[in-house]
Amino acid sequence: MKNERLRRPSVLIAAIAATAILVAACSSGTGSAAPSTAASAGASAAASSGAATSSGPAVVTQGGALNLDYATYNPLSLVIKDQGWLEKGLEAQDVTVNWIKSAGSNKANEALRANAIDVGSTAGSAALLARSNGSPIQVIDIYSQPEWAAIVVPKDSTIKSVADLKGKKIAATKGTDPYFFLLQALEEAGLKPEDVTVEVLQHADGWAALQNGSVDAWAGLDPIMAGAEQAGASLLYRNVAFNSYGFLNATESFIKDKPDLAQAVVDAYEQARAWAQAHPDETAAILAKEAGLDTAVATKVIKERSNLGVDPVPGAAQVAVLTKIGPIFVASGDVKSQAEIDAALGSLVNDTFVTNANPSRFE
What we know:
Number of domains: 2
CATH architecture of the largest domain: 3-Layer(aba) Sandwich
Strand content: 5-15%
CATH class of the largest domain: Alpha Beta
Shape: globular
Structural class: alpha/beta
CATH superfamily of the largest domain: Periplasmic binding protein-like II
Oligomer: single chain
CATH topology of the largest domain: D-Maltodextrin-Binding Protein, domain 2
């Protein structure tokens, strides 16, 4: 895999981080300020490449566990788990790899906050929400730029537009991209969150509620949403611009204490990206098996809605999307103030590992 695009300078991100420090300093004592950056880029880069840092030899983890999630909304995680690259690559270090399934971004964020996992996959919006509310995480890789969220209605629904949702019940999973997609769609249609009733349900339960008629619409998530379409449901409203990127997040303590393992995870992700793009049908088969989907549905998700070929380096593109979403968090009460949003935006990105990625180690 060519890595030229992985080695670009990150001037903008450095500027954003510097701004965040000023914001954090000015807003200390005003609520749940975003946590400080755990590790310097220089130290992490040196450690991940095997070079010595100013404080001593590079970190090489021996023993212990690497805990990371896998999720049907993150196809690359399924590929890595299926291929066993991390297990083989870390065997000499006696590191045990534990895989924990995430049912949604909110669950991945809960596990990261509880230190139940070291690395977890979420939507970018969910990562911003978590860090704005004090969760010490950073995005270390972009795994996709999907169109994975839309508003779904049942077959033969009388609801024909987002405006028609006024007074209706809508299933959504708070803290995930479909929920934030819903908020943005309502705002665009001139509606407020209080104009609808949000039934807070996990993604699969939202689809079940739509099927049994207990809600009028569902803020859906692929691949469940693609299965719903096959079953006759309709996508009422789509807007790829309202979908945030797929973020691979790590806890700051993991980044600081085990940078070599963080690098191994990112290396595996970049190998998985190349593998999935070269083997789309096999990737769809892995997704179909894990999600219990028809192969044709899984193929649609992989080939039409996942965009695994996105630039994996987190930076300006993601910050631009999240800058638009941030004020919605404040307006909805999910984050206390814009100061928390600004501080999180300035400290969320850590491009150290992906810019030093070596996917070939897992070929």
